[in-house]
């Protein structure tokens, strides 16, 4: 999974939200409700994708240091490197 930036995700999401409402304003008179709903749906998915990128940016890599002590006292040693994981959401693949 690539590294995401919260700031970039926010800017991307704000731009997509603005674009959504501009699209509705520009096309409301000429587009039937069914087609408009489809277009809005796909634009909302793009906004959700930006929000999820922000979420993953805030979560980070999951690296908690050289050791992790569990509640039961068990100590786990960190692996040599972090491992990539794919995440498939309704908004897209991460």
Describe this structure in words.
This protein is mainly α and 94 residues long. The protein has one domain (6-81). It is built from two helices and four strands, in the order H-H-E-E-E-E. The protein has helices at 6-27, 33-59, and strands at residues 67-69, 75-77, 88-89, 92-93. The strands form two sheets. A two-stranded antiparallel ribbon has the order 1-2. Strands 3-4 form a two-stranded antiparallel ribbon. The longest helix is centred in the middle third of the chain and has 27 residues, at 33-59. 5% of the residues are buried.
What are the SSEs and their pairings?
Layout: H1 6-27, H2 33-59, E1 67-69, E2 75-77, E3 88-89, E4 92-93
Antiparallel strand pairs: 1-2, 3-4
Biggest beta sheet summary: 2 strands, antiparallel
Oligomer: single chain
| Morphology | elongated
Helix content: 40-55%
Question: Descriptors for this entry?
Answer:
two-stranded antiparallel ribbon, 94 residues, mainly alpha
Give a summary of the structure in a few sentences.
The protein is mainly alpha-helical and 94 residues long.
